[in-house]
Amino acid sequence: MEFDRRGVFIDGVWQGVSAHLPLEDPSTGQQIGEIARGGAAEIDAAVHAAEAALSGDWGRATAAERGRVLACMGRIVAERVEELAALEAQDVGKPLTQARADAVALARYLEFYGGAADKLHGATIPYLDGYTVYTLREPHGVTGHIIPWNYPMQIIGRSVGAALATGNACVLKPAEQACLTALAFAAIAAEAGLPAGALNVVPGLGAEAGAALAAHPGIRHVSFTGSVGVGRAVQCAAAEHIVPVTLELGGKSPQVVFADADLESALTFLVNAGIQNAGQTCSASSRILVERSRHDEVLARMAERYAALRVGRAVDDLEVGPLISAKQKAAVEGFLAQGGEVAAEGRIVDDAPTQGHYVAPRLLTGIGPDHPLARDEIFGPVQVVLPFDDEEEAVAIANGTDYGLVASIWSENGARQMRLAKRLRAGQVFINNYGAGGGVELPFGGTGLSGHGREKGFEALYGFTTLKTVAARHG
Ligand code: TXE
């Protein structure tokens, strides 16, 4: 797969830039190359290329034609899953199995949005005699996509996929820590026949390329996934031009385990939702709430699993890889220094390179629900187990943070499942599972500090369009 690691992709062409950033392998802590340090000039050129694409072939493409290009991109991704997974594993430090799942998900997003492109309808609205009223769903225009380093391929699939399906032209600013699959994706798009300018990719620093993108007057919609602080800044910048934003900002998601839960089926979900991608997942489940009568049992069973977790290089494909950077490792270690009793810890394997950014997964107990470890997003392989006495207390603890991304309920009691599904403050609630396998069909997003707007599923298509009402008076 040919692409320029040191370049930016604008108007269908790889372009050189004057400044570069180091490219690091988190598994070794070693620099393995350089990436472009795009800035305001490159963002401006990318926005103009996207505008030109909208006035040209891409803007004239029918919905079915857009769908066919996306489907073709999906097929190429599916053929290159191994190559893309290898790139992502090295760039993000993600164990190969998990990187492969991300590449498969990218292919599936493109298949899904390719198929959906010509199925987004307006409506006809009954009105006064002598009028015909209908609605049109139109693209915003040029959409900006600022994405993080934790799931580049999945986030590209769900945001760029939906934006292209609805006829927008995209400017994508991947994270400075991991941009290789975004660049590879640009090459795949070109190969599939996506017209020049419909997708532009500009790697660079957040404060430079990212800020320039959020503030650019040519951008008509911004899709941002990342931290709360930057999300706020992006929303403020977009507000200058009254531009809508979708914010996906992470969480402190609980799994609530009642005494009647089927623990055998719950255990894998309880642990995996905390350690997948070394806990660097917006929808990570970092709080496990357990009804007191089974608290000790759940803690002990989770502790057994933690003790078996191995941490090592992404290519070795163990359960847990490194964190993305020395900075992220220091942040997680800062949290861990704040206390809690260690119920169990995973093990960094002996041959893990000493300069890699490894943190042993840690299962914590002995802290209250108001402790920072139980309230703040840690973004590392850390889970806290908290007891509760009854349903009221479970809801109070579960809803007791400022976030609201995901929650799950483990119980065999159907009435309780329905009650809690309504009462839990979260963008998605899972019953007797966690994440539902990440299906692309499922709308996804948060409430509170977790953000607003929905990506994934058919729902995302509404967010990437603006509704026009047409009222014709014909007498
Ligand atoms: O995120 P940033 P960071 C959370 C998680 C993590 C913390 C910090 O808690 O520990 O954020 O991670 C771009 N204008 N999440 O520092 O800085 C940046 O270049 C415009 C949750 O990596 O928010 C990157 O492309 N853009 C999360 C993207 O924003 C700016 C995923 C995210 O980086 C910018 C990642 C600016 N001023 C972190 N500054 C999730 N929801 O999954 C940075 N960026």
Describe, in plain words, how this protein is organized in 3D.
The structure is a single chain. The protein has 475 residues and is an alpha/beta fold. It has two domains: 8-249 and 451-471, Aldehyde Dehydrogenase, Chain A, domain 1 (3-Layer(aba) Sandwich), CATH 3.40.605.10; 253-438, Aldehyde Dehydrogenase, Chain A, domain 2 (3-Layer(aba) Sandwich), CATH 3.40.309. It has helices spanning 40-55, 57-60, 63-79, 81-92, 96-116, 152-165, 180-191, 206-215, 228-239, 263-275, 292-307, 326-336, 372-375, 391-398, 414-423, 459-463, and strands at 8-10, 13-15, 20-25, 30-36, 124-125, 131-139, 142-146, 169-173, 199-201, 221-225, 245-248, 253-257, 285-291, 310-311, 341-345, 347-348, 362-365, 382-388, 406-410, 428-431, 451-452, 465-473. It is globular. The protein starts with 7 loop residues before the first strand and ends with a strand. Bound molecules: ligand TXE. Residues 146-148, 150, 173, 175-176, 206-207, 210-211, 214, 225-227, 230, 233-234, 248-250, 282, 331, 377, 379 line the site of ligand TXE. Ligand TXE binds at residues 146-148, 150, 173, 175-176, 206-207, 210-211, 214, 225-227, 230, 233-234, 248-250, 282, 331, 377, 379.
Summarize the structure.
This protein has 16 helices and 22 strands. By secondary structure, it is an alpha/beta fold.
